[in-house]
Recover the amino acids of this structure.
């Protein structure tokens, strides 16, 4: 009999544990208020465009590049429970200096906002202004974008220099933050999970074990694509008086379908915003977020001929087709979000700086980089654009080698958020999809959105198999943190998420 009683007690405790409501006493539900704002970040003159090895100078604005800000706050009567202002930018990346400067500007006019809770992310469009000036002299060796500066010749006086553009950009972001914060009003929020086929793993593996980004899949030696893709679409919607106001959408693919052009463009997010506004509201705010997808792109790797044939028959550009798929995924699940929307929700926002071990430059790589750097330092102006970037990368490798013994870690800013059953987790990398899936799998939340390219640009974070295969994005040239740091990032991200679901 005693044995039976123990079994019943154990079962009762087990069932009680797993039927406990998702809300923890440490994350208290509060009344929601939110605000939105958007600002254009189109320069008034031509600029160098970031994202390729060769220098491109913009010749027109194909579609506007913008920043969009979403402010969230919950309160218990007059007591603030937590805050966040999330900004998404139609840019290739975000520099740490931009985050610092924006927070400083906002702190001067919004004293009731904890500026550490400002999150700034990029969509990774490759048709936006470059953010590093070739004349900057105070770049830290671990600042990855220091390698990606483009020379603008002295006779191109009509071209805006990157530092001038950065000053303009930071003022526009700060203005969007303040406007969104000041626009806060009560409303409802609800989340849902959709799916869309957008991302493609872009790393082709061959029978000899080597890997190439965008490698030829028709090659008889082609074996397989290196990894999987994540077709999740994380949706968070906001309503007032039963009218849709805005939505945050995470897609696990960078916005780089038209990446080689010489015009400014938000890429497929421009088409998506236009189609979403046509479908839901002409005044709809859209916060585009890029999920973990460092080894992905929207470019079709398999069945290229049939895909191109379909586009011709549909009379569509592929960026428009991507937008259609994204909109359909939202249409499929938005009613679920609406039926479960709340004006009170458990909202918590944590931010930490996590030290990760740097990817150490080997003696051999240091010797190779030193040779390239020394050979080019007296003829920088004569180097071709790709050779100039490679020269800057080699200079960075030399400086990293000299620093790595005294500064073995690089601190990254990580934000974790809880909105009822939905979690967000950020990182500053072009994070390989496998890491995002690991975080999702171990997260305590029902739904988890892993957002990359946030608060800094720490470049690619590849997996072990990517490093073994080599190729662009799997080399030390392309990132400051290697696979050991990736494993620690996953562990620390999960730890932070679990603190929101004790």
């Amino acid at each position: 009999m005693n044995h039976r009683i123990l079994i019943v007690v154990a079962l009762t405790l087990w069932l009680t544990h797993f039927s406990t409501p998702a809300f923890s006493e440490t994350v208290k539900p509060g009344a929601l208020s939110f605000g939105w704002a958007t600002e254009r970040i189109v320069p008034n003159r031509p600029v160098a465009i970031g994202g390729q090895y060769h220098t491109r100078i913009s010749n027109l604005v194909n579609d506007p590049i913008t920043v969009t800000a979403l402010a969230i706050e919950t309160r218990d009567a007059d007591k603030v429970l937590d805050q966040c202002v999330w900004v998404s930018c139609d840019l290739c990346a975000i520099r740490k200096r931009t985050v610092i400067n924006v927070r400083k500007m906002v702190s001067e006019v919004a004293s009731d906002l904890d500026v550490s809770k400002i999150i700034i992310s990029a969509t990774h469009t490759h048709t936006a202004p470059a953010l590093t000036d070739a004349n900057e002299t105070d770049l830290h060796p671990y600042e990855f974008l220091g390698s990606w500066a483009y020379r603008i010749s002295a006779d191109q006086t009509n071209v805006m220099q990157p530092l001038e553009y950065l000053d303009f950009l930071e003022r526009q972001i700060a203005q969007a933050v303040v406007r969104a914060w000041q626009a806060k009003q009560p409303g409802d929020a609800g989340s849902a999970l959709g799916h869309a086929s957008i991302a493609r793993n872009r790393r082709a593996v061959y029978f000899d074990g080597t890997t190439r980004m965008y490698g030829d899949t028709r090659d008889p030696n082609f074996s397989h694509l290196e990894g999987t893709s994540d077709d999740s679409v994380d949706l968070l919607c906001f309503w007032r008086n039963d009218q849709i106001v805005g939505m945050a959408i995470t897609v696990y693919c960078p916005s780089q379908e038209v990446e080689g052009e010489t015009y400014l463009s938000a890429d497929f997010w421009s088409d998506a915003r236009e189609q979403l506004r046509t479908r839901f509201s002409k005044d709809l705010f859209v916060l585009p977020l890029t999920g973990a997808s460092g080894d992905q792109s929207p470019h079709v790797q398999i069945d290229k001929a049939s895909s191109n044939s379909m586009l011709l028959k549909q009379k569509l550009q592929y960026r428009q087709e991507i937008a259609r798929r994204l909109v359909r995924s939202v249409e499929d699940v938005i009613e679920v979000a609406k039926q479960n929307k709340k004006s009170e929700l458990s909202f918590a926002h944590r931010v930490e700086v996590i030290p990760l071990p740097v990817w150490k430059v080997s003696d051999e790589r240091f010797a190779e980089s030193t040779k390239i750097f020394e050979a080019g330092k007296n003829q920088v102006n004569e180097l071709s654009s790709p050779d100039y970037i490679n020269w800057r990368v080699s200079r960075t490798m030399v400086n990293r080698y000299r620093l790595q013994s005294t500064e073995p870690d690089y601190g990254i800013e990580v934000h974790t958020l809880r909105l009822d059953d939905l979690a967000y987790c950020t990182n500053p990398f072009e994070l390989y999809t496998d890491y995002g899936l690991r975080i999702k799998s171990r997260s305590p939340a029902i739904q988890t959105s892993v957002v990359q390219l946030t608060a800094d640009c720490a470049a690619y974070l590849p997996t072990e198999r990517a490093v073994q295969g080599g190729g662009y994005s799997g080399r030390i040239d392309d990132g400051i943190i290697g696979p050991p740091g990736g494993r620690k990032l996953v562990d620390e991200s999960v730890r932070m998420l679990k603190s929101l679901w004790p």
